[in-house]
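User: what does the whole thing look like in 3D?
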Amino acid sequence: MDFSFAKEYEVCRSMFREFAENEVKPLAEEVDEEERFPLETVKKMAACGMMGIPIPKEYGGEGADTLTYILAVEELSKVCGTTGVILSAHTSLCAVPILEYGTEEQKQKFLIPLAKGEKLGAFALTEANAGTDAGAQQTIAEDCGDYYLINGSKIFITNAGYADIFIVMAMTDKKAGTRGITAFILEKGMPGFTIGKHEKKMGIRGSSTCELILEDVKVAKENVLGKLGKGFGLAMKTLDGGRIGIAAQALGLAQGSLDETISYTMERKQFGRAISKFQNTQFQIADMHCKTEAARNLVYKAAWKKDRKEAYSLDAAMAKLFASEVAMEVTTKAVQLHGGYGYTREYSVERMMRDAKITEIYEGTSEVQKMVIAGSILR
Amino acid sequence: MKIVVCIKQVPNTNEIRIDPIKGTLIRDGVDSIMNPDDKAGLETALQLKDDNPNTTITVLTMGPNQATAILREAIAMGADEAILLTDRTFAGADTWATSLTIASAIKKIGFDLIICGRQAIDGDTAQVGPQIAEHLNIPHVSYVSCVETKGSSLIVKREFEDFYQRIKVQTPCLITSLSSMNKPRYMRVGRIFDAYRDLDIKTMGQVDINIDPEELGLKGSPTKVRKTETKQAKKSGVVVELDPKESAEKIISLLAEKYII
Ligand SMILES: Cc1cc2nc3c(=O)[nH]c(=O)nc-3n(C[C@H](O)[C@H](O)[C@H](O)COP(=O)(O)OP(=O)(O)OC[C@H]3O[C@@H](n4cnc5c(N)ncnc54)[C@H](O)[C@@H]3O)c2cc1C
Ligand SMILES: Cc1cc2nc3c(=O)[nH]c(=O)nc-3n(C[C@H](O)[C@H](O)[C@H](O)COP(=O)(O)OP(=O)(O)OC[C@H]3O[C@@H](n4cnc5c(N)ncnc54)[C@H](O)[C@@H]3O)c2cc1C
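Assistant: Here's the predicted 3D structure for the full assembly of 640 residues, as structure tokens:
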């Protein structure tokens, strides 16, 4: 057993950290306040290869792995939860499934520009009446010979307003239930495909979360991703991987708020001493540190297993459940230890607490993670 | 175009601490970085390569084995080839012996353009770049803040405190770069994997540069650093903010108080 990182991971992590400090942190407050998608950051991430980390070089990526990608999401999220999820959704939910399920033509056409960061990716499963019950898809894809005609709508789609390539789930056989769901690759600007309402959110406010409207969208048969009727399984497997990304986002938020709290409590004086001298502060910080570190171990282990091509679905669910709950707890405590200042927008812990909440909800709520975990141990 | 960039590993601090007994740099507890002026020089080379992909960039450092860290960093930023100049006989070199060693190596490697940093933040002499040019008998321009190519010449901007010169210089030549001239790019993820996983760094020693050991290292150094000490910080100055006439009177009285005038 070896918990140390090889040199290349250390160097990647310090590069991500430097990038986050210099390019991302200075924008975080504004991106949140103005609900502004940081497109310029996406371009900068592309320039250092961050948009294609686990994608092989032959498909325009960096030929690194899940663990490296996770380190990037963690470091970005330490300073800006919005930027963390942009990378996570793009990589885990769009580029990776095309790598894993796409045909050679699809990889050439879609994966290369995604991995180079020339195009941004999104993934659309959720509908108004199909959330946790994702199998209850109402979007229909009708077989018209050479092409499918897609009708329906999706909600809450991350990156939607700025994405170029979308993986969209639709029913190709209504009678077959989840076995009638198929995944399609759609491109921005296809006739009949429009972006609807942009959600106003509690946190990750710079992230673009929108509705997709699909009205008689003609999609060629070569845009079917994976096999006909296998879309549900593809979506579930994709979310297994995505959960490690969201767990890393949660981990980053926890660590980021803890770092802020450590420096704040050492500076803030009450009763003639730094508040870090009070035992309550020390015990809170000790708890926050332990839990964050425990979350980190679960997150890295899930990524490591995925990289070793071992079954990791259970590990990803545990990592996501634990890290997101730790993020909520640690960011809440961070606000508490900042007192009234922590409740104001002057201090970033206020934003981090709002950002943390979503990690318990998307890519499967905490309840869903518990179902996955229980399901795989009570057999 | 073939560009050689000379990069030096330096302690990551502006406040060099000196061991008062040994007179050497205290490196403990300070991590090492690529000298900032050199990193800007490398970025300049990379930008020339962005404009003309037909460019090859070789980075070179003279130092102990641990200096390979900055060579790998340079490769991860986009350099094509890295060379470590290392040999027992190189140790203890002053700027003369350092520049002779580096110039001899570059002569073997071949070049159209050599880029050095203006100055290393530890040794601080700003001599090595111009001396390399002299050893190679080529033109050099120091304090460069901007470079364009024009055929086989370069148009460079040479920065002074309150003015600049635009100079046309024929290659092969050497320039020394200022850290303020650009913002060096980040390393690229995939290149980090290549550079730190399985890249063999080419090394050159005394045999390869073929210079008499008597001319190298401590033996070949006319300068011996006898003593180095950290200066006491000066007291902070006083700013006089009055109208010119009153200011002048005030300053005169202050100087008189201290028996300076
Ligand atoms: C900001 C944001 C970004 C998103 N990005 C994407 C995206 O990019 N792509 C995408 O496809 N989707 C996305 N989603 C959708 C997200 O994954 C869903 O919101 C989530 O899965 C929950 O579905 P729901 O909102 O319909 O809640 P519901 O399913 O209605 O759940 C409501 C509550 O009931 C609980 N519940 C439901 N069923 C059960 C059960 N059987 N047992 C116990 N408890 C249960 C849930 O845990 C939850 O607490 C995003 C959502 C948000 C808010
Ligand atoms: C505190 C201190 C004081 C010193 N004082 C003197 C002195 O007064 N006279 C003297 O002769 N020597 C002196 N030395 C030794 C001198 O530092 C070395 O000779 C050194 O190798 C080069 O000088 P520099 O650091 O001043 O570099 P500079 O001349 O300031 O460096 C200019 C550029 O040359 C290139 N370069 C320099 N060194 C290397 C290298 N090893 N590998 C690759 N490229 C390089 C880099 O591009 C660098 O930016 C001193 C050293 C120290 C630590």
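In plain terms: The mean pLDDT of chain A is 98. The beta strands of chain A are 121-124, 140-143, 147-158, 165-171, 181-187, 193-198, 209-220, 224-225, 269-270, 273-274.
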